[in-house]
């Protein structure tokens, strides 16, 4: 060990050989208690190599030692490792390969321990392949290449066995798989080409066969359960004994064979599942299975959309049929049913389809189709407005229930294309509620407007909100009015509500009606008070909306009659006369014929006969004579004599049509002003888009308005191309 | 005695009456010994020389008398015996410690920089514990915790070589017995072996 003594190669090598043989022997015997090399021997061998490398020329043996290392490793692989593996078959073949691989690694490790010095100073200097690399290459060239094909076959056979339910040695497979990976020496190519590729091919045909069988034997839910289970098992397989990069490739193959290839059948199975209310689990499974597949969910969303559309259409048809058959009010129930349908399928979207946008979209599109169908001449906008009216008049439902229904209504409104029509109907009904109903549920009224505003914008609800404000302001004003009077004008209590004509629906003025004198006093008093308190405002009296409480002094007992002002005015005529003919009445009161007929019907031919009519009949004729019915009595002390309302539905539709024409005009002008020149097609489509928030304009209407605007010289056609329009400044 | 001094004067500088580094170079050449050889350190130890690179007349005399050498030739022949003597287990521990102290060149200096330590390790114990020294030197060069080594760590390494089997190091127990430097060293090797 004294530095100075030259170690000759053969001598030095002999020492090494003893170490090598010892390791080999111990590995063969697999006696784990003995460490292959004891410290003293190790020290000796290490130092020997060190010295042999540092000796002066011609005794520096670094190169020769490197070659010797190479030889030792190669010899071990060829003579010890390979033969023992080749003697075995099947699973024993794999086991031996695995065992030999482990041994080989230990062998190389110890050998490298000896040669560390060589690695650090000689190999790195010359940039030669490292000790480990040399060892790996030897194993690869002399063992792996000979056995890999066989190994691959056995591995695949074992995997198939596990697929069919057999138990296999997973740790063994993991070790073998690792060999394929590590033998790539830095790349995963060997694993991919020698094992993975074949496994994938094999898996494809395996699941191809399964798919054909299962699709014939099993129902759609069962098939899906099996598919999901197969996918899970394959993923598990990868985590247990394959390289992680195999997972996406394997999953893709299984998906392709089990799902993509039979997608059509599964999708038609989906239709059945939707028809049954109890199949949420299966639908969720279908979503889970198709969601990772590119473009996998689109067909499912389509099926869903078609189904919901069919259900919705069925409800609408039901209502339409009922209407034609004469049953009244069926269409009222329709809105409630549509709301229920929406709730039901929204649950599907959130639970089964995980709130995916495709399915939200499908639901929306479906609803947009059938929510815009007419039932018995009434558009859905009108039906929805009626529904709201009923909802807000109702008491007895809890606050939460009403709020929940309001939420549903607002959602439905979004699907309706004639939103402007809805606004009009709603406004009319709101006016009635505010003016005639004793109990106005202010919270709910405000709540529904706020919610609509959130979705549709402030402009949409501005008029309705104005109406609500008017009522509040009116109350304050009324207090001021009462406070200002020394005594009741005409001896009557009068309350006036001032409506801002911008917000409220338009009503016919009825200031032509002849009021009795005491009422006139009230009207004058208020008019002058109003004139003092405001500037530049004009009051228009609309008595048709008023309510009057009149005491009828009947023979038996006085009864308070709650009437409309028109009815009160007619009745008050009888304060001064016993019998009045129709002709006299119409002259004195100055109502229109239609109005007077309505009033008299309600007073003499309806539930309460306040007036006696000669001759007695169901209808009013211009020759009738009327007399106060002093014998009238009723158990109650106060009764309301209702005056049936005029059906102004046609008017509403007309008004909206009128507004729409204006809106289209404005939109066309706006577009042309900014674009100056535009072809017909684009003008139409932009116009539709601009207005889509409020209503769906008819193409014919747009064309009509364009031509009208040309006549009014806002636009002109291009001289060369009549398809193009130009803005006329 | 006079001849010892006579030999002394062959290498010493008259002005200082010391053998200085240049003198030592000549001495080594005449003794047929490399300057970086452990032999010169052993000689210094025998002389109980205090300052590295210098021999005083007193130290020189002490050493050569102990070696019973009064001529250069006798000195040369005494060297193998000297080595044997140093390498006895009891002496070697003392010698090993001495080499550390001998390398402290400045007054008040208590530790030695890594570079010097690596050279020292190679000279002093390189031939006896080649693998440990190789690994330790590599470790010292790449670690960042210590820039200098103190006596405790120096001695700790010697103990490590003697008590712990290499490369399995199964008896090594990272406790208060070992300096932190060696704990890190062992951990580093274990990581490498994995």
Q: How much of the residues of chain A is beta strand, in percent?
A: 5-15%
The proportion of strand residues of chain B reads 5-15%
Instruction: Indicate the mean pLDDT of chain A.
Output: 88
Biggest β-sheet: strands ordered side by side in the sheet of chain A: 1-2-6
Number of DSSP helices of chain A? Answer: 26
Domain DCUN1 (chain B): 1-190
Protein name (chain B): Defective in cullin neddylation protein
Function (chain B): Neddylation of cullins play an essential role in the regulation of SCF-type complexes activity.
GO biological process, one term (chain B): protein neddylation
Keywords:
heterodimer; A: 729 residues; mainly alpha; 3-stranded mixed sheet; 26 helices; B: 194 residues; Recoverin, domain 1; 2 domains; two-stranded antiparallel ribbon; 4 strands; 63% helix; cullin family protein binding (chain B); ubiquitin conjugating enzyme binding (chain B); Defective in cullin neddylation protein (chain B); ubiquitin-like protein binding (chain B)
Architecture overview:
With 729 residues, chain A is mainly α. In chain A, 67% of the residues lie in helices and 5% in strands. Chain A contains 26 helices and 9 strands. In chain A, the strands form 3 sheets. In chain A, strands 1-2-6 form a 3-stranded mixed sheet. A 3-stranded antiparallel sheet of chain A has the order 3-5-4. Chain A has a 3-stranded antiparallel sheet with strand order 7-9-8. In chain A, strand 8 and strand 9 form a beta hairpin. In chain A, helix 2 crosses helix 4. Chain B folds into 2 domains: 2-87, Recoverin, domain 1 (Orthogonal Bundle), CATH 1.10.238.10; 90-193, Orthogonal Bundle (Recoverin, domain 1). In chain B, helix 3 (38-47) crosses helix 4 (57-66), helix 6 packs antiparallel against helix 9 (151-163) and helix 7 runs antiparallel to helix 8 (130-142). In chain B, the strands form 2 sheets. Chain B has a two-stranded antiparallel sheet with strand order 1-2. Chain B has a two-stranded antiparallel sheet with strand order 3-4. With 194 residues, chain B is mainly alpha-helical. The mean pLDDT of chain B is 89. At the A-B interface, helix 2 and helix 4 of A face helix 8 of B. Chain B: GO terms for molecular function: cullin family protein binding; ubiquitin conjugating enzyme binding; ubiquitin-like protein binding. Chain B: InterPro entries: DCN-prot, DCN1-like_PONY, PONY_dom. Chain B: Neddylation of cullins play an essential role in the regulation of SCF-type complexes activity. Chain B: Residues 1-190 form the DCUN1 domain. Chain B: One of its GO terms (biological process) is protein neddylation.
